[in-house]
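Researcher: Sequence recovery benchmark, item below. Answer with residues only.
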């Protein structure tokens, strides 16, 4: 009698996979996370899509989940053995890809976002079929800690922002690709360049890429978001002359970083680059200049300073978030018909007007040609409303149209030269994710009591209000400044004098003589204590007898030591600061950008030929 045939068995790992799935699902907070994770299915790479919602159950965005069971031996250092195929899947994801490893014994899960930068770097170093990906033990989902919801929500929103900004990014990308397509016709492998000369080119381009990747990665992400390295196309080289171009290399293209340019005159190449403004052409005196590391910094400098001049970097800090958004609300108060209550504005009202109602109002305005379907509208020119009641009626009618799904004749994208709308969106999300529904003023009102024109405009300032705002400002400024560096320029943090050691005492002294023609100003003293203590910030009026520092004594008597509260200090740095920054749209950004631009300019000028970098 023949044996009865049995159906195909489940994989031997199936009990562990099912248990891991059940543990993970039980840890998720269903108020904010919706969806089911699959196991034992045939869908490659993805185990399911989860949707993030707000507390009112409105959808925010989605994330892609890959779920794995973590061996008990990895409990102290969570990690995952990932194969190349899965990394390739993560290179160009439509949704954020989150890898989850489940500790079945402790009923916990750990997660990591596999972002494009990490994936591309990992693939570039991959030598076998698999690699081990470390997962931060702080990224723990235990059923109590809800930090993951905030972070996943931001990742989901970032995808939406990328779609929102798709047009601008696509135009930049298309422009760059046109320039590269033209250049690629003339790039050839450097087969006839001597090895010794080729080594000079490689050493130079390694230094250039090191500077971009290590010190100014935030700048590179803005200029070349889809490119992994900068290559070098050599036109002419000799002991007397060197002409070359630098061009970005896409992630999707494998090629050597050194190329030879053939069959095109240098003059035409230079003009192509100038016209497109996307690549860099250089015409140097001789080949030996490649050996000078400062030359790589010189080429990076112009791009870096150009971006710093025109770009606002978002900073994850509540003080600057409120300051920037409140300043924006004050600027557009009449245009958006925002209601100010106790020096606050509604975030929901701001969002509704900025992204919903106002684009309809502007898009239905007369004056657009019939063929115009999309338009970038600079709101800075429309801030003054002559007939406010008529404008309110227009906003109300547009709100009614928005409710029924109506669209304007012209699709409007709102822009502003005074404020970065992308940063506005970032801070709206940042505050909402932390439970804020209103934007608050960070400063005392009434700084200007009357308008005085000319050099003596400060005579219309209120000294007491200015002094209170100075103290409010500098109690937060150093923290915001440090957070800015940590987020965007971590490898420069300890190389710039813009940063201060946390054990230093910073003293601010206000000079304000109402009987004098001189403008008020602020002195900033940095004091190092005789013993190691936690740093602090203190404030004194210049006429205060208790003020422990005096600039005249320091310069005349060379007396750098002082005593405060029985402790000895030494003045290690002193600078003066005008007070005009407090009247800017965003005082923190104004002073921070001014200081950082100056510090980076000095940093570039201080790079010497003796300075070397490790490319490990």
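Model:
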């Amino acid at each position: 009698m023949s044996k009865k045939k049995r159906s195909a068995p489940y994989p031997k790992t199936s009990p562990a996979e099912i248990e891991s799935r059940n543990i993970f699902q039980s840890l998720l907070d269903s108020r904010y996370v919706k969806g089911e994770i699959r196991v034992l299915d045939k869908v490659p790479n993805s185990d399911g899509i989860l949707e993030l919602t707000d507390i009112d159950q409105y959808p925010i965005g989605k994330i892609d989940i890959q779920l794995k069971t973590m061996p008990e031996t990895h409990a102290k250092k969570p990690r995952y053995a990932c194969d190349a195929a899965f990394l390739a899947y993560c290179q160009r994801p439509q949704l954020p890809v989150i890898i989850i490893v489940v500790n079945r014994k402790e009923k916990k899960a750990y997660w990591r976002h596999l972002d494009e930068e990490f994936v591309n770097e990992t693939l570039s170093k991959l030598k076998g079929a698999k690699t081990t990906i470390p997962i931060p033990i702080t990224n723990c989902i235990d059923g109590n800690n809800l930090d993951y919801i905030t972070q996943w929500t931001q990742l989901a929103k970032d995808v939406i922002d990328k779609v929102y900004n798709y047009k601008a990014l696509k135009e930049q990308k298309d422009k760059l690709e046109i320039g590269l397509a033209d250049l690629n016709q003339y790039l050839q492998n450097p087969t006839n360049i001597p090895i010794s000369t080729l080594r000079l080119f490689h050493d130079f381009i390694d230094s250039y890429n090191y500077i971009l990747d290590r010190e100014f990665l935030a700048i590179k992400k803005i200029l070349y978001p889809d490119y992994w390295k900068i290559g070098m196309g050599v036109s002419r080289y000799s002991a007397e002359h060197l002409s070359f171009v630098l061009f970005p290399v896409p992630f999707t293209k494998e090629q050597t970083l050194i190329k030879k340019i053939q069959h095109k005159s240098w003059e035409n190449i230079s003009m192509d680059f100038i016209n497109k403004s996307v690549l860099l052409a250089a015409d140097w005196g001789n080949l030996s200049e490649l050996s000078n590391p400062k030359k790589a910094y010189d080429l990076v400098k112009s791009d870096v300073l150009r971006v710093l001049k025109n770009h606002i970097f978002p900073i994850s800090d509540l003080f600057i978030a409120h300051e920037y958004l409140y300043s924006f609300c004050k600027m557009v108060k009449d245009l958006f018909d925002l209601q100010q209550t106790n020096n606050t504005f509604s975030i929901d009202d701001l969002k509704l007007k900025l992204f919903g109602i106002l684009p309809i109002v502007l898009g239905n305005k007369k004056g657009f040609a019939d063929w115009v379907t999309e338009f970038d509208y600079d709101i800075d020119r429309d801030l003054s409303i002559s007939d406010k009641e008529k404008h309110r009626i227009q906003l109300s009618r547009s709100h009614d149209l928005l409710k029924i799904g109506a669209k304007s004749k012209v699709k409007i994208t709102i822009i502003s030269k005074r404020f970065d709308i992308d940063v506005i969106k970032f801070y709206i999300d940042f505050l909402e994710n932390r439970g804020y529904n209103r934007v608050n003023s960070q400063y005392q009102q009434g700084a200007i009591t009357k308008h005085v024109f000319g050099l003596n405009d400060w005579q219309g300032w209120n000294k007491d209000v200015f002094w209170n705002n100075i103290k409010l400002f500098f109690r937060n400024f150093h923290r915001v400044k440090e957070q800015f560096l940590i987020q965007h320029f971590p490898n420069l943090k300890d190389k710039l004098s813009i940063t201060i050691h946390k054990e230093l005492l910073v003293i601010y002294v206000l000079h304000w003589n109402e009987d004098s023609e001189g403008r008020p100003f602020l002195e900033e003293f940095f004091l190092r204590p005789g013993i190691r203590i936690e740093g602090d910030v203190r404030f004194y009026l210049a006429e205060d007898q208790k003020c422990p520092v005096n600039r005249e004594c320091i310069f005349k008597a060379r007396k750098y030591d002082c005593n405060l509260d029985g402790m000895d200090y030494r003045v290690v740095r002193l600078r003066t600061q005008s007070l005009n920054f407090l009247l800017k749209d965003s005082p923190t950004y104004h002073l921070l950008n001014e200081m950082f631009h100056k510090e980076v300019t000095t940093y570039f000028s201080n790079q010497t030929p003796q300075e070397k970098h490790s490319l490990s």
